[in-house]
């Protein structure tokens, strides 16, 4: 028990150290605050895959009562510790990702046209901005066939993640 | 009386018989016996005369004859032949021995003849069919003379009772009469005695009967007396009863009359009362009648009104039903249309839902991809940053 507790405490301190590191990376003025717009990047840099909706929820939780546009470290640390300890927003499995692409590929061709992907990504869900879209297309489109072999694309992403 | 008469008659008959027997008995019996013997002789002679014929025919005799008779006849024939030969021999040689033999043969022949005769007498039929042609003349004469003798005897037997006998008969008859008279007298005396006894008995009987009659008369007299008394008493009683009954009945009648008069008066009063009641009832009845009449009239009027109304209503009803039918037709068309429309709407709704569902799915999947891509991009950038020591910072700012 005591060991468990100790290891748990050690884990917690480890996690908190990681969070502190990530937070400090974006604390430009070194006054234990970050811009609210950097919170998504911080959370994602800690290995999470939150949606924009989930990100909003966390932001509303850690924000001050009067929105100042900045997030304080004291507020961010316990919430983020809890998130990481509970393993929320865990990495999305490869199968689930491929399934998502297959849903978009209604004719089961095994690939997607760039226009199709663009249409889905910019009109459904939590739409991409044009820059984001350009980036994604540049990373995913097969240069020879000018289509997206989504399985290859998913494989590329998951390999680089590991 | 009757008994005595019969007695007299019987006595008379007996005396007559006795008298006859005493006079005729010796002569008649003798004569009759003689006649019989003569008759027998005549028959025997005749039969003997027939014998030769019978002997001659003995072999041809009718089959009804007994064998014994035939044998006897043959034996007799043999005896006769022997006798004839012996006799002829005797005529030639007269001697003692021949004499003896002849006498013996004669005896045997006589016995045989007697037997034959006895047999023939038992069968008189044999003699009937034979003729008398061959009969010898002397023998015939003998028979005739014997018959004559017989006739004579018979005549004598019939004519014999003569005057000589009459005297004797008379005296005997007188004697008989006196005897009979004496008997009669005795009978009469006994009868008289009987009569006297009978009359005495009768008198006793009569006296007895008279006594009975007297007793009966007296009893009758008594009876009459008692019955008269009874009748008078009954009459008296009846009269008394009658009187009392009449009295009571009169009393009752007066009572009844009173009652009747009372009842009459009651009846009268009741009649008057009932008349009044009847009058009132009649008045009421009239009133009620008129009322009913009014009611009926009213009812009739109401009925006619109602009828008219009913007709109107039924007319309306018919019209409305026609209308209803039309409307129903219309309704059916509209309903069909309505159902079609509803079907279309439902289909549209389903389509819409399906689309929405698809959209949701797409949304979710898009979100997954987008989240993954954003995370991937940030970490890629962070790696690059870590290598180049805090390179680009503004990348994350693009997101929001």
From TrEMBL, chain A:
<dbReference type="InterPro" id="IPR002048">
    <property type="entry name" value="EF_hand_dom"/>
</dbReference>
<dbReference type="GO" id="GO:0005509">
    <property type="term" value="F:calcium ion binding"/>
</dbReference>
<protein>
    <recommendedName>
        <fullName>EF-hand domain-containing protein</fullName>
    </recommendedName>
</protein>
<feature type="domain" description="EF-hand">
    <location>
        <begin position="14"/>
        <end position="49"/>
    </location>
</feature>
<dbReference type="Pfam" id="PF13499">
    <property type="entry name" value="EF-hand_7"/>
</dbReference>
<feature type="domain" description="EF-hand">
    <location>
        <begin position="92"/>
        <end position="127"/>
    </location>
</feature>
<dbReference type="InterPro" id="IPR011992">
    <property type="entry name" value="EF-hand-dom_pair"/>
</dbReference>
UniProtKB/TrEMBL annotation, chain B:
<keyword id="KW-0282">Flagellum</keyword>
<keyword id="KW-0963">Cytoplasm</keyword>
<dbReference type="InterPro" id="IPR000048">
    <property type="entry name" value="IQ_motif_EF-hand-BS"/>
</dbReference>
<keyword id="KW-0966">Cell projection</keyword>
<dbReference type="InterPro" id="IPR042815">
    <property type="entry name" value="DRC10"/>
</dbReference>
<keyword id="KW-0175">Coiled coil</keyword>
<comment type="subunit">
    <text>Component of the nexin-dynein regulatory complex (N-DRC). Interacts with CFAP52.</text>
</comment>
<feature type="coiled-coil region">
    <location>
        <begin position="274"/>
        <end position="367"/>
    </location>
</feature>
<protein>
    <recommendedName>
        <fullName>Dynein regulatory complex protein 10</fullName>
    </recommendedName>
</protein>
<comment type="similarity">
    <text>Belongs to the DRC10 family.</text>
</comment>
<comment type="function">
    <text>Component of the nexin-dynein regulatory complex (N-DRC), a key regulator of ciliary/flagellar motility which maintains the alignment and integrity of the distal axoneme and regulates microtubule sliding in motile axonemes.</text>
</comment>
<keyword id="KW-0969">Cilium</keyword>
<feature type="region of interest" description="Disordered">
    <location>
        <begin position="380"/>
        <end position="400"/>
    </location>
</feature>
<keyword id="KW-0206">Cytoskeleton</keyword>
<dbReference type="Pfam" id="PF00612">
    <property type="entry name" value="IQ"/>
</dbReference>
């Amino acid at each position: 028990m005591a060991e468990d507790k100790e290891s748990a405490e050690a884990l917690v301190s480890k996690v908190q150290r990681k969070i502190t590191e990530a937070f400090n990376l974006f604390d430009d003025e070194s006054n234990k605050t970050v811009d609210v717009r950097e919170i998504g990047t911080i959370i994602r840099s800690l290995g999470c895959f939150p949606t924009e909706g989930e990100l909003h929820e966390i932001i509303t939780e850690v924000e001050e009562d009067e929105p100042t546009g900045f997030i304080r470290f004291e507020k961010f640390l316990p919430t983020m510790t809890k998130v990481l300890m509970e393993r929320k927003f865990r990495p999305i499995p490869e199968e689930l990702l491929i399934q998502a692409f297959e849903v978009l590929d209604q004719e089961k061709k095994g690939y997607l046209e760039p226009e199709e992907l663009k249409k889905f990504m910019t009109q459904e869900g939590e739409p991409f901005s044009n820059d984001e879209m350009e980036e994604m297309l540049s990373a995913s489109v097969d240069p020879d066939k000018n289509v997206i072999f989504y399985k290859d694309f998913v494989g590329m992403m998951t390999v680089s993640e590991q | 009386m009757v008994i005595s008469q019969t007695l007299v008659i019987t006595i008379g008959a007996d005396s007559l018989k006795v008298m006859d027997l005493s006079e005729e008995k010796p002569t008649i019996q003798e004569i009759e016996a003689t006649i019989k013997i003569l008759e027998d002789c005549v028959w025997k002679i005749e039969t003997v005369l027939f014998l030769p014929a019978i002997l001659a025919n003995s072999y041809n005799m009718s089959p009804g004859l007994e064998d014994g008779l035939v044998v006897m006849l043959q034996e007799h024939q043999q005896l006769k032949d022997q006798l004839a030969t012996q006799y002829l021999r005797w005529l030639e040689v007269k001697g003692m021995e021949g004499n003896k033999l002849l006498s013996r043969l004669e005896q045997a022949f006589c016995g045989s003849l007697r037997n034959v005769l006895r047999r023939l007498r038992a069968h008189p039929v044999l003699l009937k069919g034979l003729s008398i042609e061959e009969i010898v003349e002397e023998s015939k004469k003998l028979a005739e003379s014997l018959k004559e003798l017989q006739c004579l005897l018979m005549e004598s037997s019939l004519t014999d009772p003569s005057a000589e006998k009459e005297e004797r008969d008379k005296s005997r008859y007188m004697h008989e009469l006196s005897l009979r008279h004496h008997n009669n007298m005795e009978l009469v005396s006994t009868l008289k005695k009987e009569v006297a006894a009978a009359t005495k008995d009768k008198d006793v009987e009569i006296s007895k009967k008279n006594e009975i009659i007297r007793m009966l008369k007296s009893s009758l007299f008594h009876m009459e007396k008692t019955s008269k008394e009874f009748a008078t008493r009954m009459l008296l009683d009846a009269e008394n009863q009658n009187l009392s009954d009449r009295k009571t009945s009169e009393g009752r009648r007066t009572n009844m009359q009173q009652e009747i008069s009372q009842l009459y008066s009651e009846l009268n009063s009741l009649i008057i009362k009932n008349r009044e009641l009847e009058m009132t009832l009649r008045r009421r009845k009239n009133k009620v009648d008129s009322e009913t009449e009014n009611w009926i009239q009213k009812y009739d009027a109401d009925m006619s009104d109602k009828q008219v109304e009913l007709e109107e209503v039924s007319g309306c009803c018919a019209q409305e039903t026609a209308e209803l039918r039309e409307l129903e037709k219309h309704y059916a068309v509209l309903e069909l249309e309505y159902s079609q429309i509803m079907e279309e709407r439902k289909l549209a709704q389903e389509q819409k839902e399906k689309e929405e569902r698809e959209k949701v799915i797409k949304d979710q999947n898009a979100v997954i991809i987008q989240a993954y891509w954003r995370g991937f991009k940030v970490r890629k950038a962070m790696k690059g940053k870590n290598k180049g020591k805090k390179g680009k910072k503004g990348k994350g700012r693009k997101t929001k």
